[in-house]
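step=encode ok
step=design start
structure_in=
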């Protein structure tokens, strides 16, 4: 995968903390940001895939094992 440089404008206090976090994780600031953005993109992809799957299930309908006919009445199930 090819890389592309970007320019960011980050508040100084945030940048200092981010650099410290990168040192704690034994990586560079670029590596830390790359991993974070990569995780965000992967999570978004998984969400969209799952959403599309669930929408297709909803469009098809649910098979409840009744074969579209019910042999009982509500009152029979809920004896009062």
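sequence_out=
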């Amino acid at each position: 995968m090819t890389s592309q440089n970007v320019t960011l404008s980050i508040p100084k206090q945030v940048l200092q903390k981010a650099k410290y976090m990168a040192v704690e994780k034994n990586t560079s600031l670029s590596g830390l940001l790359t991993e974070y953005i990569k995780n965000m993109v992967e999570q978004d992809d998984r969400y969209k895939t799952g959403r599309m799957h669930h929408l297709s299930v909803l469009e098809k309908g649910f098979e409840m094992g009744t074969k579209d006919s019910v042999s009982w009445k509500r009152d029979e199930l809920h004896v009062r």
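step=design ok
step=annotate ok -> The mean pLDDT is 91.
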